[in-house]
């Protein structure tokens, strides 16, 4: 992590410059620079290898999985994913990138549409409608048309079933989004408390005598590393929760391994198992890829298969990380680093909120629509679609074929959408973008830790602080030289500045500068 030169930092902040390490470097005044991606951003020319920091040897080498994650078995690393145009795999799978913009009209957009998964069902329905129409048209002794009254009766039942399916699916989707909003809120609050409110303990008299500058510098770094570690655990909690909700119980995933590699967890022990290494090297066949993109149920892998194949207990990784965060909070309180009761309350309330998020997301994941409802809704929907050609032929003749396809597209489209968003945490295009949520938490933690705690004096006594803007563009130092009466007069006149800018009549006016 770069050489520690006593009271002077050796890096250039941020990425570590020419002599920085991985992820964090010392600033010129001995403070700690901003952290980067949790997987560790390498520094400059000397950022690789072993560097010396206060007499100890630390390796900056970043470990990675033995083989890259394969599609359908593991979530790819969002922190290393380039924001470029969509490839074929991204187009039909993976949560949609909400940062991308399409100029196509909504009714012509294919990415995010349920259409690819309806190609095979619509072809089957079209073939069925063609068969019924040809038999009724060419073979006059075969009368297959029926009265359309059945269309009205069954249509009402199907609409009720699809309404139930869609409403429950969207409710689960919205509940999942609320849970991740709470997670982001709790992460931001914990990051602020750990970085801003947690005070550094004062040095002892003996340390002052031996060398206050060096000891103070080392102590600040030690405290900063601990705070950064705690903030990284907040990130690790979010990433671990994402993998847990996608039934990925191990720790070897590229966006998680470097965040939890230093803590002792059951998932870490299970990851070392040989069977896990073999599972990671399995290939993903073209048949399965095409089948999943087309929505073929027999080609879709069981999302829980990794959980069923575990040889050792995998535990509950987010809960274990939460225990480490709680232990860190207890230490902050016991050491007097959070002296204000409200700060302590904020920490424990937000840790409780993280636990609440874990339980609620598991509830959404493990409580789908009762299977009896799901089966009967599927049956009556397909029965209605299959009976359409018989009821439409008498009125539409050859138009029965395209009419059946169009009607099936509408009905099956609503049915398929409800099935896709029922589990909002998966890897379908319309699922919640959990990778983006985790990246947002990473960005928030980096933003919070990019600056040291500022004092009120530094905030106020600044030449660019226009204390009476927009009434006056003068800085703090210009106004502090004025008598108190002039300041109070300006405060009385300041409300009129808005009316003056809008062209409204004013009873008083103030100077642009003092």
UniProtKB/TrEMBL annotation:
<feature type="transmembrane region" description="Helical">
    <location>
        <begin position="118"/>
        <end position="136"/>
    </location>
</feature>
<keyword id="KW-0812">Transmembrane</keyword>
<keyword id="KW-0472">Membrane</keyword>
<keyword id="KW-1003">Cell membrane</keyword>
<dbReference type="GO" id="GO:0005886">
    <property type="term" value="C:plasma membrane"/>
</dbReference>
<feature type="compositionally biased region" description="Gly residues">
    <location>
        <begin position="1"/>
        <end position="23"/>
    </location>
</feature>
<feature type="compositionally biased region" description="Polar residues">
    <location>
        <begin position="70"/>
        <end position="86"/>
    </location>
</feature>
<dbReference type="InterPro" id="IPR044669">
    <property type="entry name" value="YneE/VCCN1/2-like"/>
</dbReference>
<keyword id="KW-0406">Ion transport</keyword>
<dbReference type="Pfam" id="PF25539">
    <property type="entry name" value="Bestrophin_2"/>
</dbReference>
<feature type="transmembrane region" description="Helical">
    <location>
        <begin position="398"/>
        <end position="417"/>
    </location>
</feature>
<feature type="compositionally biased region" description="Polar residues">
    <location>
        <begin position="50"/>
        <end position="62"/>
    </location>
</feature>
<dbReference type="GO" id="GO:0005254">
    <property type="term" value="F:chloride channel activity"/>
</dbReference>
<keyword id="KW-0813">Transport</keyword>
<feature type="region of interest" description="Disordered">
    <location>
        <begin position="1"/>
        <end position="86"/>
    </location>
</feature>
<protein>
    <submittedName>
        <fullName>Uncharacterized protein</fullName>
    </submittedName>
</protein>
<feature type="compositionally biased region" description="Low complexity">
    <location>
        <begin position="24"/>
        <end position="39"/>
    </location>
</feature>
<keyword id="KW-1133">Transmembrane helix</keyword>
<feature type="transmembrane region" description="Helical">
    <location>
        <begin position="148"/>
        <end position="164"/>
    </location>
</feature>
<feature type="transmembrane region" description="Helical">
    <location>
        <begin position="371"/>
        <end position="392"/>
    </location>
</feature>
């Amino acid at each position: 992590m770069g050489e520690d030169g006593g009271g002077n930092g050796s890096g250039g902040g941020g990425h570590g410059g020419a002599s920085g390490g991985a992820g964090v470097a010392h600033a010129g005044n001995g403070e700690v620079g901003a952290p980067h991606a949790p997987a560790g951003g390498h520094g400059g020319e000397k950022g690789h290898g072993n560097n010396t920091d206060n007499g100890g040897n630390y390796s900056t080498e970043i470990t990675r999985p033995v083989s890259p994650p394969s599609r359908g078995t593991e979530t790819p690393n969002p922190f290393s994913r380039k924001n470029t145009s969509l490839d074929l795999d991204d187009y039909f799978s993976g949560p949609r990138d909400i940062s991308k913009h399409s100029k196509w009209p909504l009714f012509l957009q294919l990415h995010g549409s349920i259409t690819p998964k309806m190609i095979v069902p619509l072809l089957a329905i079209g073939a069925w409608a063609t068969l019924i129409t040809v038999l009724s048209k060419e073979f006059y002794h075969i009368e297959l048309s029926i009265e359309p009254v059945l269309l009205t009766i069954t249509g009402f039942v199907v609409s009720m079933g699809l309404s139930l399916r869609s409403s429950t699916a969207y409710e689960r989707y919205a509940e999942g989004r609320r849970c991740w909003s709470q997670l982001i809120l709790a992460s931001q609050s914990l990051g602020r408390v750990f970085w801003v409110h947690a005070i550094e303990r004062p040095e002892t008299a003996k340390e002052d005598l031996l060398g206050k500058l060096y000891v103070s510098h080392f102590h600040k770094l030690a405290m900063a590393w601990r705070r950064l570690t705690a903030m990284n655990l907040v990130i690790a909690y979010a990433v671990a929760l994402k993998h847990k909700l996608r039934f990925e119980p191990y720790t070897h995933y590229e966006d998680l391994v470097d965040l939890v590699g230093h803590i002792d967890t059951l998932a870490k022990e299970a990851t070392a198992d040989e069977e896990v290494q073999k599972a990671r090297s399995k290939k993903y066949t073209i048949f399965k890829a095409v089948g999943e993109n087309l929505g073929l149920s027999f080609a879709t892998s069981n999302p829980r298969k990794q959980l069923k194949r575990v040889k050792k207990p995998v535990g509950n990784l987010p809960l274990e990380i939460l225990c480490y965060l709680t232990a860190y909070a207890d230490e902050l309180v016991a050491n007097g680093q959070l002296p204000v009761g409200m700060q302590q309350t904020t920490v424990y309330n937000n840790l409780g909120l993280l636990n609440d998020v874990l339980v609620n997301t598991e509830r959404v994941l493990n409580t789908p629509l009762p299977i009896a409802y799901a089966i009967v809704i599927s049956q009556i929907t397909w029965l209605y679609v299959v009976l359409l050609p018989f009821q439409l032929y008498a009125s539409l003749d050859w138009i029965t074929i395209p009419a059946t396809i169009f009607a099936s597209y509408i009905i099956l489209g609503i049915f398929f959408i409800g099935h896709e968003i029922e589990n909002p945490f998966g890897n379908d295009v319309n699922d919640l973008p959990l990778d983006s949520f985790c990246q947002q938490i990473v960005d928030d933690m980096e933003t919070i830790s990019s600056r040291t705690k500022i004092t009120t004096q530094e905030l106020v006594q600044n030449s660019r602080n226009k204390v009476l803007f927009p009434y006056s563009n003068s800085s703090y130092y210009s106004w502090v030289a004025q008598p108190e009466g002039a300041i109070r007069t300006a405060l009385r006149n300041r409300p009129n500045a808005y009316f003056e800018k809008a062209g409204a009549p004013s009873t008083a006016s103030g100077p642009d500068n003092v």
